[in-house]
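Archive maintenance. Older records in this collection stored only the sequence; we are now back-filling the structure field for every entry so that each record is complete. The fields below show one back-filled record exactly as it appears after the update. Entries are processed alphabetically, and IclR family transcriptional regulator is next in the queue.

ARCHIVE ENTRY
Title: IclR family transcriptional regulator
Organism field: Pseudooceanicola atlanticus
Length field: 263
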Amino acid sequence: MKEGGNMANQDGTQAIRRAATMLQRIAHVAGDEPPTLRNLSQAVDLPRSTAHRILKALTDTGLAYYDPQTRRYEIGMLSYELGLAVTDNVLQLAPWAAAVDRVAQRANVTTYLMRRSGMEAVCVHKAEGRTVIRVIPVEVGQRRYLGVGAGATALLAGLPDETVDRIIAAVTPDLEAFADLTPDRVREAVAEARRTGFSESQGRAYRSIYGLGVGVNAHAAEPDIAISIAAHAPEVDETRIAEWKTIIAEEIAETRKRLAVRR
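Back-filled structure field:
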């Protein structure tokens, strides 16, 4: 009886892990469209029948959403509502979310707060500028591999060389989903970010988008969050880039100053 109970517990734990992995894959940005059943079953290496059962449970509970017209899956409203719960970790991010809002207002471009999560970066806050052409390659809650996009690359650049190599090797099979990303290009971007303090993405993830990001050691020894911006590439020049770098650096310094006063 005891042995059977242990087996049931193991099966339950496995089911939870599989469901969590599936949700992560749904939230992961690996192209322009949400994933299909086929995409998800291949990504998590499960038979389509097993993946379908897990996805049905996720959609039935509202953790995921299925669009019958496109046959694609997105994060559901329940996942969004759970993410709104106020915890100490959320409160710690509040000053940095405010910094993102100020950057967006001053730079007049879409600005993001990205948080490192394993070998991914998740968007936890977004603020839009006032420009007519709005660039929004990532929505709140969506995930990207480290090295894909300016903010995610800034986070990758702050990690030890050995960790960087392991992450690049792990994400290489998925890089072909993006405009101009290869392992060598990611390594070049990491080296440049370390040299200048800023990560730049000029059409690597999306051809028409320029990205600029900075990693921040907010609550860890290594950068655990990043502030990044995204702009319509044809409108970007060296003068604007220099201005944006100054704005981001100033807001990071000001936020650190405010946090130091509170302690």
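Update note: The longest helix spans residues 2-27. The first strand starts at residue 64 and ends at 67.
Entry marked complete.
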